[in-house]
Amino acid sequence: MALASFKNTILHNLVSKPKTRKVEKEYPVGTRGQVVNDMDVCVLCGLCSIKCPTHAITVDKAEKTWSIRPMSCIQCRCCVDNCPKKCLSMGTRFQEPGSDKVTKTFHQSEKAIAAQEALMKAAKERAAAAAAAKAAQAAAAGNAPAPAAQPAPAAKAEEKTEEK
Ligand code: SF4
Ligand code: SF4
């Protein structure tokens, strides 16, 4: 009896479609795969690193690098939601299985560095212009004619004394 049931199961499995899904091709909507950063846009502000609950992200402003330890990432999406430049996304491909605790490091692109330097230069120019305008305003206020002089209180007292 058990052997017949076993044979039926084998025959059924041979002719029926697989019950599993080909995950390499069909990723369900909302799949949270590995975190992907567009280094052409990232300004290395470090907010993603601060918000990451597992400290999987490291930002090195001096070296201009953004690093992630995939084995520490829990795919919570917190970094993606908090990135002010919207350069982070959850890739739909799952992490390749492995046992090595690797750190993936990415360099800020030349394009991003140039854009950031241009922004900083523009901000400095705006600050210098504002400071110059303020100084000019202060100088103009210093050269303005003084208000009409009021008689001194001591002189008034003298006048009163003479009248008596
Ligand atoms: S990925 Fe976004 S939040 Fe993280 S350092 Fe770059 S710009 Fe900042
Ligand atoms: S998805 Fe979550 S755990 Fe992974 S790097 Fe982003 S904030 Fe950290």
Q: What overall geometry do the principal axes of the alpha carbons give?
A: rod-shaped
Span from first to last CA?
Answer: 140 Å
- Residues in β-strands, percent: 5-15%
If strands are numbered along the chain, what order do they take across the biggest sheet? Answer: 2-3-5
> How many beta-strand runs?
5
What is the average of the pLDDT values? 84
Examine the coordinates and then state which fold CATH places here, giving the name of the CATH topology of the domain at 26-94 and 102-112: Alpha-Beta Plaits
Ligand inventory reads:
iron/sulfur cluster
Instruction: Give helix and strand order, one letter per element, not per position.
Output: HEHEEHEEHH
Instruction: Please give the largest β-sheet.
Output: 3 strands, antiparallel
User: If you compute it from the alpha carbons, what radius of gyration comes out, rounded to the nearest whole angstrom?
Assistant: 36 Å
Looking at the overall shape, the CATH architecture of the domain at 26-94 and 102-112 is 2-Layer Sandwich
User: Helix coverage percent of residues?
Assistant: 40-55%
Provide the CATH top-level class of the domain at 26-94 and 102-112. Answer: Alpha Beta
Q: Which assembly state applies to the chains in this document? A: single chain
Number of helices: 5
- Which structural class do the helices and strands define? alpha+beta
* Low-pLDDT stretches: 154-164
